[in-house]
Amino acid sequence: MAESETLIPLHEALRRNARNHPERDAYIWYGQHISWRQMDEASDAVAARLQALGVKKGEPVALFMNNCPQYIVAHYAVQKIGAIVCPCGPLNKEHELEYQLNDLQARVIIAADVLLPVVDKVRSTTALQHVLAVRYADWLPAQPTLQLPAELLAPVQPLPQGVESVWDIMHSGARPEPVAVSMDDVALMTYTSGTTGLPKGAMLSFGAAAHKTAGASAATGVNDQDMLLAVAPLYHIAGMSMGVNMPVHSGATCVLLHRFDPLAVAQALERYRVSWWYSIAPMNVALMQVPGVEKMDFSALRRNTVTSFGITYTEDLAQKWRRFAPNAISSEAAYGLSETHTMDTFMPGDAIRWGTHGKPAPGNEIRVIDPETGAPLAPNEVGEIIIRGPGNFKGYWNKPEATAKTLKNGWVHTGDMGKFDEDGYL
Hints:
The chain has 426 residues and is an alpha/beta fold. It has helices at 10-20, 36-52, 69-80, 94-104, 116-122, 166-170, 206-219, 237-250, 262-271, 281-287, 315-322, 400-406, and strands at 25-29, 32-35, 60-64, 84-87, 108-112, 130-134, 163-165, 186-192, 200-205, 227-230, 253-256, 276-280, 303-307, 329-332, 345-346, 359-360, 365-369, 383-388, 407-408, 411-418. The radius of gyration is 21 Å and the shape is globular. The model has no long low-confidence stretch (mean pLDDT 96).
């Protein structure tokens, strides 16, 4: 479990880690060891700069980049001043970014330098006033220990005029003015297409993130002695939960990769004795096909939660993977959605039931109802899944009608069809 049983906003957990273990590794980025003190000071400096740019509590700030330690710095910088983290998918095309920025009326964006051409195209048609840029290579070590993606080897280009360097800001030593936040304040806005129509910003609170992260950490036994591996996209709610939130909540060190590369993952599992990894099922398949992988040592891996996406993570696949990771309990990770801060179920490691998503997470109520009448259904009867719990969103940003359709009497109506078996597995 985490050091403190009392839930606090995750940016306060970051500060706690920096106080208690300042020089302990927080993240490892291709061999660069980054301490909790560095993460805390860097996010303080970026937070102070955002305040200097006039960012107020409750104001949306857009993040537009792929995985890198600066993403995590930016995330907590925004939350330290009570502003709202608004991730924009780095694959977004110009019209998608324009729609999201206009929906948010965002004045500030923190973007990767390689994505600045997309930002540039929408500056004149949005409310953007300030662009802060991240260079992925800035925090790389002189001698990387893992295979680098080709895009991180590209020569660094000077930033255009009128664009501020996040790297320079991070090293300013500035501290933000304190901002009081409550667990019920909006901390995150994650965009989801939901069941229909244009993407909608699901408003999630500081408390939703803290509760769901604590629940998922407890369910899989994550503690500060673990070595985590984060490969899934941090801008997505699942990758964020595992790569941004869980290391900070638990105090565990996390190996962070820019994107999935089978060889780099294999090298990370072996070199850093990774004990806990959240993967997507095709990643496991690709890993087993790396030349020479059978000679590599993944024995430290004790838990591998897997999302079936593209292919189903079956018992047969898990048995094949066990030949490479003999000590790992691997199973379907969880059922969840953006509107509930995901991780709504968990799979008991000692009672895996294949073909299910596990049991409701602690503190989470899940029902299966008749979509026509709303009546609860018996086990093995298929109906709509509805959820009530501490992770539930506060509504869609500026979309009251859509909110009313999804959030009814404290229950999120997912639109997903499912059933419980007789033992309570979804």
